[in-house]
Amino acid sequence: MLISGPRQPGNDIDVYLAPLIEDLKMLWEEGVECLDGSREETFTLRALLLWTINDFPAYGNLSGYSVKGYFACPICGENTCSKRLEHGRKICYMGHRRFLPQAHRFRKQKKAFNGEAEHVRAPKPLSDVMHIEKNVCESLIGTLLNIPGKTKDGENARLDMVAMGIRESLKPVSEEGKRNFLPAACYTLSRSEKKQFCSTLAGVKVPTGYSSNIKSLVQMKDLKLINLKSHDCHTLMQQLLPVAIRGVLPKEVRNTIIRLCYFFNSICSKIIDPSKLQQLQDEVVVTLCLLEKYFPPAFFDVMVHLTVHLPREIKFCGPVWLRWMYSMERYMKILKGYVRNRHRPEGCIIECYIAEEAVEFCSEYLANARTIGVPKGIEERIESRSGFKVIPIDYKTLCEAHYYVLQNTTVVDPYMSRPENTISQQIRWFAHEPKREVLSYSGYGIGGYYYNTSDHDSRSTTQNSGVMVEAESLHMSTAKDKNPIYANMLYYGVIEDIWELNYT
Predict the structure, then answer these.
(1) Residue 398 CB neighbour total at 10 angstroms
(2) Is the pTM here over 0.90, yes or no?
């Protein structure tokens, strides 16, 4: 077992992988004799390593490819468009206009980009989405909020733009006896806008299990976001960032960032239409070109550049959610929790893993036993209730609730269209109407979901009171429309109370 840290193998990982490679060769060429317990016969077992899942730095260590320097992109190779910034002392990866059609108007624009027209064609293709999304999110938020150590803007970034002959109006202004003043750029937020941005994120409530508590990541005093994990960045880029930046940026900059968020949302969908991958490719190229028009060159590190190759990766490897590393990182957190002696982390992990496996194995042979120290399954946590009380209701309200049950119960549907000769016991219960006293809950779990009342959510850091109903309704174009049509429509609401009707 290898533990990451200052003394991790790095590029010498091939030394540790040599025994594994020998075993894989043996498993593929010769195989291992195994016993089939159901058939009570032996067979030759063979194994094949299809792919590995790793972040971008580990990709370089594992493959031997240099993921730094002028040719850091493994797809573009020697055709990577890179430039070393004289003042920022880092390499930026711009030139995304190469991926546009030859007749695109962006190719001829000079001042908005690097001061030159673009005539080069896209290179022929010779990456881990989760970490690309995380790095892009951190760069965006760090630059918008001007977080020290995270922002891609600064005096050196402005001097690099002056050296490239672009956006000279943003060059630092020198004043005698004072620090250099940086003019506001189109992506610069004022203090009031930063406060609005952070207040929006601090006030967000999401359903249980959707993400971590976003409020705990926001520091209103310093107006910045801290301790962002990979899944926090995923949630921000997918849903929350487009909401938070509304009204705090110029329209063109805001729309560009939202386009980038929609791109990540599209490629992370569970269902992707292969015929739309080329459209996604064209959209992300235009989005990156728009980012080049508004953001400084220092913003474009290799992780931002790699987004242009993600649609191609999906075309060859399939949906992203089948390959990202969230499950691995969550399990790494579990393994870290096993460590009690930091001087011998490997031994702690192995000892705790074996102990937990033994407990789970023994629990399978004990009927109705609850394991000790093993978390409850999601089904056990969801199928529960809270805030129980009995309340009387008036007859009119009871009839409305009873009618709603009849309209939304499948066993009643056959009796709605035509009478049945046989009547089930459940229909007989419905015929007698429910009791006047109903059971009221503040929380109720059913069908794999857990719901709360709005009053309960007002005292919680999460919100599970929102509901959606798809219903058929009459649609008219105008008040004088003589040809109305029936169509399904979505209705949104909030749960005020949860009732359980008793028909017994």
Answers:
(1) 19
(2) no
